[in-house]
Amino acid sequence: MTMKEIRFHGRGGQGAVTAAKMVASAGAEEGMYVASFPMYGFERRGMPVVAFTRLDDKPIHEKTQIYTPDCLMIIDPSLLNLKGVFDGFKAGGVLILNSSRPLEKAPSENLEKSGVVDATGIALDEIGRDIPNTCLIGAMAATTGWFSLDAVKNCLSEYLGGEVLEKNIRSATRGYQEAEVQTWGS
Is residue 185 part of a domain? Predict the structure, then answer.
């Protein structure tokens, strides 16, 4: 696999930074080299947050922000139309979107594949809180094939425990199963 660069867009409190770390852990579980880090600005609940993850089969030396992502994860659907979200999005790109409605049209000419899932609804159902990140990681596994659902389930124990872990495993599994994957013209 060539290096995959993933940019996460969410709001403070939705788990964007943790999602980036969990995706890196899922990649490591599959034997990949990984790098993950956040970009902090206003560190307040509800403010936009960006985080980054790189996955590769070779050591990763790049330590900068991700300017040309292969994949975007939009945790808060209100950020889909935010100026700059699709900046640098590579041709053949993948979008993982938290939304209760499927995409009617491609939000970027570079979009090749999307995985849309009602991660908020699933999180409220399974976890009891609006923290959709693990559901979206399951959707990412289903949409990209870059790592398996088993890798996601295994890595969650690094971050969660007990009943919360079990609830998040169910959320990730539903994200994997319920993601509506669409292929767009390239």
Answer: no
